[in-house]
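Give me the fold.
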Amino acid sequence: MTVANTVGASDAICTALVLALRSGLDYADAPAAANALGAGAMGDPSSQPHLVHNIERVGSVSGRPR
């Protein structure tokens, strides 16, 4: 992955962690999902990745599509 912009990456990670836990991912899988979303944010030059697409992708990190 090429880092395009780090602005907002930690916000994305924190938000994704909360959303992952609230949507039922367990404490072992939620951090990996949050890190995946943070990485997606860093690869997006606008620092505002499309959340619906990324949240769907986050489910695939744990092997459980959302």
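The chain has a mean pLDDT of 78.
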